[in-house]
Amino acid sequence: MNTTLVELTRRGRANHSGHPDDEDRGSISRRRINVSSLEQLQTEMSFRNLISWRSKWNDLYILEHLSEFPSTEQVAALRLVLSTGMLQLTEMVLNVRPSGTLTPDTVLEKIQQYLLKQRSVAFDRVQFHECNQVAGQSFDLYYIRLQRIAVCAELGSTCWDTRMTTRIMSGIRDQETRKKLLAISPFPSLPVTVELRRSEEAAGANELLFRHPQRSAPSQWTSNELQILRRW
Question: Is residue 82 within 8 Å of residue 54, measured between CB atoms?
């Protein structure tokens, strides 16, 4: 009886301290990894989209507690979210095959370096300097597009905020916001620029609603007014 109590006490202390006993370790290794929520990494995926995909993979890695599994099982989980074409590319072109020392990050780094060589940084930089907000596009969608291009253009962290701010001031469609930004001295920071444009966009939509509270059907608004409301 005393022995049983001692064993239970020891087990309770071990569990409370965060160190699983043998039975718990077995349950961890047997737990099924679910990767169905993540779209497959396709061969034709661009470098720009790969960056976003890796962010989703990192989230899955955390949610599925993959760090608790052996590296071989982690890599197996990653291989399940590679399309057939991408799997063949990693094995036959990049010569990346499952092994005891291989990790998911190693595989993804090799894929990223491969895609990196397929693109032109010069082209990305031209795209960055020509990235303008298009008609009907909300500022947030424009800002997301601009950031994705900027990452691929490898602008560097030294003058990132200044270059992003300058591009936003030049690329937004709303001239009134541009005038307000140009009037700010000293040169506005990126957070100030983003917040001002968001506030102006929301104010424009609210102003329309206050001015025409009786309107409800889309046919009662002009095309320009509908664009403002949809962006908001």
Answer: no
pLDDT in tens, 170-201: 999 999 999 999 999 999 999 999 999 999 88
Q: 0.70 exceeded by the pTM?
A: no
Where do we find the tokens 């506030």? 199
Query: How far is it, in rounded angstroms, from Cα 232 to Cα 226?
Result: 10
Token pair of 10 as six digits? 């020891």
Nearest to 168 by CA among 135, 145, 199: 145
Sign of CA dihedral 50, 55, 58, 64: negative
- Cα-Cα-Cα-Cα torsion 91, 94, 95, 99, nearest 10 degrees, comes to -80
Whole-number Å distance between alpha carbons of 213 and 20: 62
CB 72 within 8 A of CB 100: yes
Q: Which two tokens stand for residue 209?
A: 């609603």
